[in-house]
Design goal:
alpha+beta, wza like fold, Outer membrane lipoprotein wza fold like, three-stranded antiparallel sheet
Length: 208
């Protein structure tokens, strides 16, 4: 009988511990932001305004750094009006190799992006009461905190906890609330969320 009571007490303690874990988990879920937090595994795509360094192995005379024009194309002495915007550096290198093969036998090309601007749909735009409103090139694993550091935080007139993130999901724009004051002023890391290419952060002015 004593052994039965001991087992019963042990079983009750285990059930109570499990219930506490579930309760804590529920509390953590309620504290999260109502925003899709899936991180995208994207590669950087070249955009207008970028500068690309074209290195042709054993051919320094055609190796050079050129800007990507507003129309998204580049021009070199042997390659004219080649589309660069919307491509990765690797894809652009292969295209240059193909174009140069008319003049150079088996060219080997490396492309290095030296000035990052990116396509518009790859940028993160910050408007409203940021210290330095601007468009930022998206970086892999970029977070809301990274964006706020880049724009210098918010102004004294900002309503940070009423800020919103406009994001295109399945071809439709959706608006999510973000808590900038909690993140920046209170150090609440739960208010930090992953960013996606094309996000627009809107920081409204507070009403006095």
């Amino acid at each position: 009988m004593g052994k039965y009571k001991a087992n019963l007490v042990k079983h009750s303690a285990m059930m109570l511990a499990a219930a506490c874990v579930l309760a804590l988990g529920g509390c953590a879920t309620r504290g999260q932001q109502p925003i899709e937090t899936q991180v995208t595994d994207s590669q950087y795509l070249i955009g207008p305004g970028d500068a690309v360094n074209i290195i042709v192995w054993r051919n320094p005379e055609v190796s050079m750094s050129v800007p990507v024009r507003p129309d998204g194309k580049i021009t070199t002495p042997l390659v004219e009006d080649l589309q660069a915007a919307g491509k990765t550096s690797t894809a652009l290198a292969r295209d240059i190799e193909k174009a140069l093969s008319k003049y150079i036998q088996q060219p080997v090309v490396t492309v290095v992006v030296t000035n990052f601007v990116g396509n518009y749909d790859e940028q993160i735009r910050v408007i409203g009461q940021a210290t330095k409103p601007q468009a930022l090139p998206y970086r892999r694993n970029m977070s809301l905190m990274d964006v706020m550091i880049a724009v210098g935080g918010t102004t004294e007139f900002a309503a940070g906890n009423r800020a919103s993130l406009i994001r295109t999901v399945d071809g439709k724009q959706q608006r999510f609330n973000v808590r900038l004051d909690d993140l920046i002023k209170d150090g609440d890391i739960s208010a930090n969320v992953p960013m996606r290419p094309g996000d627009i952060l809107v920081i409204p002015e507070s009403f006095f």
